[in-house]
Specification:
Bound molecules: flavin-adenine dinucleotide
Largest sheet: 5 strands, mixed, barrel
Number of helices: 19
Distance between the termini: 60 Å
Radius of gyration: 23 Å
Number of strands: 11
Structural class: alpha+beta
């Protein structure tokens, strides 16, 4: 008897196969730039749909390990990464997944090129995007600090294409006292007499990518006041020339829902040597460039995970037969995937729009209005796309029926890994409150900021067709903001920020003439009540 066999979902070259990425790049990149970057994208698409994807499936049950002691009683706190991550590190360096943004071969558009590489690379490498995001953010922060000694020491390692020289960076902010309210941090910095070196004492509660060679962290120099302003931003190198931790103990690795390839540690800093990056106060403000970059990566990762789920789901729909026809021919299944695709396309255009603005800001090609817009859009984009990723990947699992819930299909990890996106780099609520703050950067009244936001959307939509849904949502947001005061304003901040996020997503879909605009508008952008 011939038994039924189900053809599994398969991936092709992830660049060639991506209509949304291809058409977007063709619109925003001049022809000569597109032709120059295309080879790198085709190659990354080939790796992502081929070698890396196969390695990812084979690596599924491997996890990083921590060995705290050697056979002779020495504390070594050695971290062993999985084969996928070791391969990912080399490929990331060689293909310039961080470096491209700093080489600036194509000016501000290099950031778009780099984000396209990251978008292709991310879904096949089990959140190797996490150390890369922090590496990118650390490079930007150190460059912005103007601290020449640190620039000379660290930046060339962070942005090199040579895997032997490549460093990744950690970002250690969260303590037991709070990840959102980091001003409560308890880590103390004691200056060594007659030296620029400080010694850090404290506990860091979530430190991802603990295998990194360096980290940026927050600590309170002795005598500084309480609160965020009293913290300073420090640079430290994690291990000495023999590979031993520099007065850092790795107490354990976290046992997490997802991101299981990421070695996220709890640390004790027991006199870890560190240097000030910029001044001896205002650490929270000084680490902001890092957070802006990691939030951009968060958005790119969100769209990358959505895209991977949908690529597999569309392929499977053409292979899985139910009630006499492939799922792809069932009106309701098609309709379900069409809605998810619209969410993905909306998020895609938002994340890449923030990439465009980030690139302009980095190369100084940005107007004051756009610099302000970038400040406002970064938290909105991060919070909006993260929520979309959780929803879309959850639906993707359902679109496979029972197979979507079974581990060795490689599908459940998409949902588990997406679930971190709304939590780290600022939770949804924290970023919603930050959005209100961002709207008041040039005037104490957020309604004034919303008017500037409205003007920016008008500019995006200049000369395009039906914008009535966008207009209605913005008018509703304005009338809500004019009424909401005190606690009502705070309580409604999440709905308000998500509405702004979805509204600008719709505006971008319309501007880019995406067919999905209609579906996205029908699902709804206005969440305010
Ligand atoms: C896998 C993983 C890896 C991580 N890696 C790192 C890392 O490498 N480095 C690092 O520094 N951190 C890292 N984090 C920590 C992460 O950034 C924090 O968990 C996050 O910022 C939230 O902080 P918290 O856990 O202390 O929660 P809390 O700050 O206690 O927040 C709890 C809840 O309260 C809400 N909340 C807080 N304040 C307000 C408010 N004012 N109004 C309304 N709601 C509010 C939050 O939205 C949240 O839902 C990681 C976390 C995870 C899960």
């Amino acid at each position: 008897m011939k038994l039924f066999q189900q053809a599994p979902p398969a991936l092709k070259n992830q660049y060639d196969d991506d209509r949304v990425l291809g058409s977007y790049l063709a619109r925003v990149l001049p022809a000569d730039v597109l032709s120059d970057v295309q080879e790198s994208l085709v190659e990354m698409g080939r790796l992502a749909g081929g070698e890396l994807y196969e390695l990812q499936l084979a690596d599924r049950l491997n996890e990083p390990t921590l060995t705290q002691w050697d056979a002779w009683g020495n504390r070594i706190d050695k971290i062993e990464l999985t084969p996928l991550w070791r391969r990912a590190e080399r490929i990331a360096a060689e293909h310039g997944v961080v470096a491209t943004a700093y080489e600036q071969k194509h000016g501000s558009l290099s950031r778009v090129h780099q984000c396209a590489l990251a978008y292709l690379f991310t879904p096949s490498t089990d959140i190797y995007s996490c150390p890369l995001a922090m590496t990118d953010g650390a490079a930007r922060t150190i460059l912005n600090s103007g601290n020449q000694a640190l620039i000379d020491r660290a930046v060339s390692h962070l942005i090199t294409r040579d895997p032997e020289q490549f460093w990744t960076a950690g970002q250690w902010m969260t303590e037991l006292t709070g990840g959102s309210d980091v001003g409560l941090a308890e880590t103390i910095a004691k200056q060594e007499p007659g030296s620029n070196t400080f010694r850090l004492y404290g506990r860091k509660w979530f430190t991802s990518a603990i295998a990194s060679q360096m980290a940026l962290t927050l600590a309170r120099p002795e005598g500084n006041p309480a609160g965020g302003r009293g913290l300073a931003l420090f640079y430290l190198e994690t291990r000495d020339e023999h590979g031993r931790p520099r007065n850092i103990q790795i107490n354990r690795l976290k046992d997490k829902l997802g991101t299981r390839k990421v070695p996220t540690a709890e640390l004790t800093l027991d006199g870890a040597p560190a240097q000030l990056v910029k001044g001896s106060t205002d650490g929270v403000r000084n680490i902001a460039p890092l957070l802006n970059i990691t939030r951009l990566w968060n958005g790119i990762s969100a769209v990358a995970l959505m895209r991977r789920g949908l690529a597999l789901s569309f392929d499977y729909a053409s292979k899985r037969v139910a009630f006499g026809a492939p799922l792809s021919e069932k009106a309701l299944h098609r309709d379900t995937l069409t809605t998810l695709q619209a969410e993905f396309e909306a998020a895609f255009h938002f994340a890449f729009y923030v990439a465009e603005l980030t690139g302009k800001s980095e190369t100084g090609e940005i107007s004051d209005d756009d610099e302000w817009l970038l400040r406002v859009l970064t938290p909105i984009m991060k919070l909006t796309t993260a929520k979309q990723a959780v929803m879309v990947t959850s639906e993707v699992l359902e679109s496979f029926g029972g197979a979507g819930y079974v581990e060795d299909t490689g599908l459940p990890v998409l949902l588990r890994d997406s679930q971190v996106l709304p939590i780290w780099e600022g939770t949804t609520n924290v970023l919603a409150l930050d959005t209100l703050r961002a709207l008041t950067t040039d005037n104490t009244d957020p309604s004034h900021g919303l008017m500037r936001f409205d003007a920016a959307i008008k500019q995006i939509l200049e000369g395009v067709g039906d914008v009535s849904v966008v207009r209605a949502a913005l008018d509703h947001a304005a009338s809500w903001l004019a009424e909401a005061k005190g606690e009502a304003l705070e309580a409604g901040a999440r709905r308000f920020s998500l509405t702004l996020g979805r509204t600008i997503e719709l505006a971008l879909l319309i501007k880019h003439k995406m067919n999905s605009a209609h579906r996205f508008a029908s699902v709804g952008v206005d969440l305010i009540f």
